[in-house]
Amino acid sequence: MAAVQLERVRKVYPDGFVAVEEASFEVADGELLVLVGPSGCGKSTLLRMIAGLEAVSAGTLRIGERVVNDMAPKDRDIAMVFQSYALYPHMTVAENLAFGLKLRGHDRATVAARVDDAARLLELEALLQRRPAALSGGQRQRVALGRALVRQPQVFLLDEPLSNLDAKLRMSMRVEIARLHRRLGATMVYVTHDQIEAMTLGQRIVVLDRGRIQQIDAPMALYERPANLFVATFLGSPAMNVLRGTLVREDGPALRLDEGARLPLPAGDVPEARFGTRVDLGIRPEHLLRGGDGEADATEGHVEVFAPAVDVVEPVGNEVFVNMTLGTHALVARLPPGELPEPGTALPLRAARGRLHFFDPESGRRLD
Ligand code: ATP
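That is the input. Now the predicted structure with adenosine-5'-triphosphate docked in place:
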């Protein structure tokens, strides 16, 4: 296996469009790194540059010790798995798995052994004689993975490999990919627009927006300390609540929203120097807690309760999303399954201690 290193890598398409601004990061040997971001952020372009399918406009790209900027894809010792499985329809699963190896001139015994290994690892043994048309979407995707696996490449590149599968299958394939990564100890770069996939699969995640790297970190570090508003609102579902206003000290610390409503905040959670300044305040839906419960209020220490108006209540089984308005501002809370507040009523809530995020309203950057 090998590390992948990008040093100020840029991509400018022939029409002058800058798809990737200087990107610098390293995928460690054996690491599963996820590139995530909304459509058009440049994640596929980055992956395709690593694969050699797009030229690097500037900067240095290394795989292992070698600079590969000008190296042909076939010489890079990488294998790529695409969203469209790209299987050969007229070949059986076994032939699909063997094809790339035969093309590269491996002998029959090696080909047979590697196909067997991949089939066992991906539980494809019973399907080896079928053609792709006779496979389910999940089985096809396993064959596509198998085709990469038999190559025993230094680096696996996966471009939205699960996005053609239904939600349930996606979840089980996600676990299979994680398991595969653990067993192989392979270096993998995984592209997705799905934040859940990124959070569950990535050992580290690169968050991209409009061609720029926004933050690189371990999943929970990104979730708990997002570097800016983009990362804060991109990761997490429902998304983080963001309220713009001025931090004030009126009967205790609070955010005075621009349209006048007041959101009381836990004492001690607002840095002294912030009072009087304008901020975008972020609170995750799970950090809006049911207030007015004496016992919990006492354990948490007193935090003043506020009461937004309940709008739409969405029970999803193991939790309830409660959509509300505070003044004219929309808010959402994630409450335990027993809670079913009536639309139209006021719901007493308080902000959890130590969970506030402050961002600069101009630049969107995290303030600490
Ligand atoms: P998606 O998830 O929709 O595939 P992405 O994050 O993978 O999005 P890219 O495919 O990397 O995005 O594209 C990044 C940007 O570069 C997009 O705005 C796209 O329109 C642009 N782009 C891609 N290919 C070309 C090209 N050949 N010429 C000009 N612009 C391009």
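The first strand starts at residue 4 and ends at 12.
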